[in-house]
Design brief:
The complex is a heterodimer of chains A (110) and B (116).
Chain A (H helix, E strand, L loop, with lengths): L8 E5 L4 E6 L7 E8 L6 E6 L4 E2 L4 E4 L5 E6 L8 E9 L11 E6 L1
Parallel strand pairs in A: 1-9
Antiparallel strand pairs in A: 2-7, 3-4, 3-8, 5-6, 6-7, 8-9
Chain B lengths: L4 E3 L2 E4 L5 E6 L6 E8 L3 E9 L2 E4 L8 E7 L2 E6 L8 E8 L10 E2 L3 E5 L1
Parallel strand pairs in B: 2-11
Antiparallel strand pairs in B: 1-3, 3-8, 4-5, 4-9, 5-6, 7-8, 9-10, 9-11
The chains are: A mainly beta (110), B mainly beta (116).
Chain lengths: 110, 116
């Protein structure tokens, strides 16, 4: 699986958009980008995934650059409950082992 | 849907004792994963099963650890004998198959293990 690089921590004001970057410059053509988050003392939670097109669901939007070497997870209106560690993972389709890195600790402040 | 169920939620045991962690995956999911999380090492994949068969156990730290999945609705992770360095939060996750396309994993609440 391609290695990912994420900032260690970020802050965001409540009600504003949170933009979490991820660098995956060695991604292969058959590797998807996944985002998970882990709220304190809970198990990780799936957010969204994509291959090359931008994706949106009820939780977030995923913007993948045209060269696929980086992506951004967007939480459009962050709330205090979005405070968590956010993990960016790349993996080959159909391969089922998920390798988590250190992630980005997002703190949403009032 | 009850989600992935793990038991116990907390376990405190003495060094040398056997510990058994339990997991009930989401009905219909044919993949099951065991993870361990510590401050030092983060979230690590230990082993995963497909249709009750272990596929990859390369993450199991040593022979003291074993995992079984006797049927589609139950799995155990056993540590015998336990050591203080095994103290961690152990997560179970399950995942459906989707024609070879990627799919999300659903995690349980975890078991916090403390070995004294």
């Amino acid at each position: 699986d391609a290695k990912t690089t994420q900032p260690t921590s970020m802050d965001c004001a409540e009600g504003r958009a949170a933009n979490l970057p991820c660098n995956h410059s060695t991604i292969s053509g058959n590797e998807y980008v996944y985002w998970y988050r882990q709220i304190h003392s809970q198990g990780p939670q799936y957010i969204i995934h994509g291959l090359k097109n931008n994706e949106t669901n009820e939780m977030a939007s995923l913007i993948i650059t045209e060269d696929r070497k980086s992506s951004t997870l967007i939480l459009p209106h962050a709330t205090l409950r979005d405070t968590a560690v956010y993990y960016c993972i790349v993996r080959v389709a159909g391969v089922n082992d998920m390798r988590f890195g250190a992630g980005t600790r997002l703190t949403v402040k009032p | 849907d009850a989600g992935v169920i793990q038991s116990p939620r907390h376990e405190v045991t003495e060094m040398g004792q056997e510990v058994t962690l339990r997991c009930k995956p989401i009905s219909g999911h044919d993949y099951l994963f065991w993870y361990r999380q510590t401050m030092m090492r983060g979230l690590e994949l230990l082993i995963y099963f497909n249709n009750n068969v272990p596929i990859d156990d390369s993450g199991m730290p040593e022979d003291r650890f074993s995992a079984k999945m006797p049927n589609a609705s139950f799995s155990t992770l056993k540590i015998q004998p336990s050591e203080p360095r095994d103290s961690a939060v152990y997560f179970c996750a399950s995942s459906p198959t989707s024609g070879g396309h990627p799919h999300e994993q659903y995690f349980g609440p975890g078991t916090r293990l403390t070995v004294t």
